[in-house]
Amino acid sequence: MLKTLLLTGTLTLVTVARPGPAGAMEDKYWVGDSSWWDYEENWDPPGQPHNFDTVYLVQNDAVDRTVWYYNTEYPDEWVNLLTIDASGPGTMTFEMTSGFDHPLKANGVTVGGEYAGILEQYSGDVTVSGELKVGDSATSIGTYDMHGGSLRTADMHVGCDGEGALHITNASADITVSNMLSFGPRGTFTAVPGTVIHMTGATFAIEGTDGGSLAGLGKVELVFEGGVGDVDPFEVAGEDRGAMVAGFFGNFAVGGLTLGGVDIGQVVLAESFDNSPGPDAQYVKYLSVGAGSTLDLNGHTLYYGVLVDGAGAIIGGAPVRVDRCGDADMNGVVDGLDLTAVLSNWDTTDPVADLDGNSVVDGLDLTAVINNWSVAGGAVPEPATVLLAALCGMAAARRCRHR
Ligand SMILES: [Ca+2]
Ligand SMILES: [Ca+2]
Ligand SMILES: [Ca+2]
Questions:
Q1: pLDDT tens for residues 328-343?
Q2: What is the model's pTM?
C-alpha cells in the first residue's frame, strides 16, 4: 500500500520546517490516523517530536493506525520515552519503513505499555540508551517484528510482566544488547536461522517455564564480547534430558553460544529462576569459546552438539557432548543434508560432520547417519520432529547400554 501511495502521488513526503529555536521538552500525543511521523499536524502539540520529547502513540478507538517513521529533520536528536499502546479495538503500529534508513534515538521504548502495541522494523537504526520493553505491565501485549535494520539497546525485555513477542524474520537484522536481554514468563521468541545477537556486556535472563515459547533461541547465535572487565551471567533454563538430541527441542536450547567476537567474552552460568523440572541444564548446539575468553559453568550442566572452538578457558565443570545420532545439523531430521555434511567433509576434522567426536570424519560417522536415517529429504512438522529426536535419543540410550 505504501508503495502505491508513493507512486500515485496521493501521499507526498513533506518535511515540515519548524521555525525558530528548538523548544522545551514536551509530551507529544499522536492525533492522526495512519500517517507519517514528520507531519506536524499529526501531533498534539503540533510538530515532529525531538529534543527529548516524551512520545505517546496511543489511541482508544476502533481504527487501525500505522505511524510510518520518516525523520530527516532531526536525525541526530533523541526523544525521551516512546510508548506504543492502543487501548481500544484498533491497532497501533509504529513502522520503520523499508527504504527509509532513518535513525530513531530514544532513552526508552515501550511496545505495549498497559495495552497493545506493535513495532515493525524493516529498516533504519534504533538506538535505545535505556530499556526497550515489549509487553510491559501485566495487562499489556507487545509485538516487535524485526525484518531488517539495526537495534542497539542497553536492555531488551521481551515480556516484562505482560505478553511480549519478538520475531526476527531476516538474518540481516543487526542486534546489539549491552546490559541485559531478558525473556519474561510470557515472552515469546521466533527467529530465522543465521540470526545473531551481539551481547556486549549483557546478562542473559529467562523467567519462563515453556521452552517451546522461545523456539527462536534454537536458531540464534548469541555472541558474548564484553571484554576483560565484564562477566555476563547466563541463565541455565532447560530440562536435563541427558546427552541426547531430544534436549535441543522445546527446551530453551540455544543455537550458538559464542564467547569472543570483536572482544573477548566472559560468561558465567547462573540459576536465578527454576525454568524446568529438576535441576536446570543448558543445551547449546554450537559452542565456541575463543582464545582469551572464559566460560564458567559454575557447577551447572552444559550440553553441546558441536564444539566449534575450544581455545579459550572452560572452568567450573566440563561440558558434555551430545550424541547427535547422525543429525549433523541438529535440525531434528537425519536426511540428505546430514549425509552431504559427512561426505563433503570426508577425511577431515570438521567438527560438524564428525558425529562421533573422534576427530576424523570417516565410516563411523557415515554409519551414524545411515543407522539413524529418519525421513528421506522431507521436512516434517515440529511435533514429529520432536518425536524423531526423542526416538533418536532413545536409540542412543539403547546403543549406550549395549556398549
Ligand atoms: Ca534456570
Ligand atoms: Ca539433520
Ligand atoms: Ca568421526
A1: 999 999 999 999 999 9
A2: 0.88
